[in-house]
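Now for today's protein.

===
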Amino acid sequence: MDMKWEDGFKIRVSVDEDGACVIDANWAGLLSLSQNILALAKEPAGSHFHLDVFNSLEEGSCALIIGKTE
């Protein structure tokens, strides 16, 4: 899957004090993330992508894996 990112995107993923996953992003980050999730929806079941601080997320973020099931 070819990932596409809008210029100036920023995405941060964290876990809050209640254990909830929190995704904070600017406009370009939200648009990029939504477009990449839509692209993933067209892939076969079992497909997924990883995001982390070395691959698209802001410093201090926890890793995020988004996958497609059946």
Q: What stands out?
A: The chain is about 20% helix and 25% strand. The mean pLDDT is 97.
